[in-house]
Amino acid sequence: MTRRFFVERALVRGTAKLIGAEAHHAAHVMRVRVGDRVTLFDGSGLEVSAGVTRVGRHEIELDVGQPRHVDRELGSALTLGVALPKGERQRWLVEKLVELGTTRLVPLITERAVAQPGQNTRDRLQRAVIEATKQCGRNRLMDVGQPQRLADYLVSAPESAVRLVAHVEGGPLRVVQAGPCDVFCAVGPEGGFTDDEVTACDRLGWQRVNLGRRILRVETAAVALSAFFSVRLEEREAAAEQS
Questions:
Q1: Number of helical H runs and strand E runs in the chain
Q2: What's the Rg (C-alpha) of the chain?
Q3: Fewest C-beta in 10 Å: which of 104, 153, 208, 213?
Q4: Is 39 exposed, middle or buried (0-12, 13-18, 19+ CB in 10 A)?
Q5: Which of 69, 98, 124 is the last residue of a domain?
Q6: CATH number of the domain encompassing residue 37
Q7: Over pLDDT 90: what percentage of the chain?
Q8: What CATH number does residue 83 fall under?
Q9: Do 97 and 196 belong to one domain?
Q10: pLDDT of 138 higher than 70
Q11: Range of the domain at 65
């Protein structure tokens, strides 16, 4: 299990503290001791090696070296608007999106949505983001946006972006265009988007895409889209580096 911990304050050379949930995890789960080496990140892209100098009941003090930028992000921003499923399926969804490099998750408010996301939901999912980020090695936190109505989410995406809506009557999912381009996707609830919602997507120029002949759960569809673009964007960046 990796010894990576998140600090809320910007990393600088000198000293740092783990407090709250991170201190508890370090002391009681990872069993860190004075003299141990760990890795800290602050969510902005910085990471640093640090030595544990004191383990207290509610905080851990560390000696911090020189922070450095370590980029493990996709070459373009990937935003997923999702009508969230219920319960623990939300946490699973967040965990996988973080691992795949998704930049932003926007909980969607749709006509057939089964979960009504509020501030408590957002706070809980943000904690899941931190845990998944620690595990997968990213140094930037996936943003969990404020819940948005589908209509507002659709108009928030620039026309220059790849804009896709998962729909059974869509065409096949195609490779991302050659140049740098942000990606926005929309995934509806278990009952799907209504006809009026799909019409709104069409009117604004969003492209319908079909994810296969089988019916997918909300979180499966979202992860499938994220995985598709994660692979394609990584391939594009690797090809650019070799050229």
A1: 6, 13
A2: 20
A3: 213
A4: middle
A5: 69
A6: 2.40.240.20
A7: 74
A8: 3.40.1280.10
A9: yes
A10: yes
A11: 4-69
- Give 66-115 pLDDT, tens digit per residue: 999 999 999 899 999 999 998 899 999 999 999 999 999 999 999 998 87
Average pLDDT, the chain: 92
With 0-12 / 13-18 / 19 or more C-beta atoms within 10 angstroms meaning exposed / middle / buried, residue 110 is buried
Kindly tell me the sign of the dihedral angle through the C-alpha atoms of 96, 99, 100, 101: positive
**Is 32 in the same domain as 125?**
no
Is 122 found in the same domain as 38? no
Least confident range from 49-63, 107-121, 153-167, 174-188: namely: 174-188
The helix or strand, by DSSP H or E, that contains position 199, with its residue range, turns out to be: helix 195-203
Whether residue 176 has pLDDT greater than 60: no
* End residue of a domain, out of 42, 69, 96: 69
- Around Cβ 157, how many Cβ atoms within 10 Å? 21
Q: Which helix (H) or strand (E) holds 3?
A: none
Closest alpha carbon to 217 in 190, 185, 192: 190
- Which has more pLDDT, 242 or 68? 68
The total number of structural domains in the chain stands at 2
E-strand stretches of 73-224: 78-82, 104-109, 143-144, 148-149, 162-172, 183-187, 207-210
Report d(CA 82, CA 187) in Å as an integer. 5
Answer yes or no: pTM beyond 0.85: yes
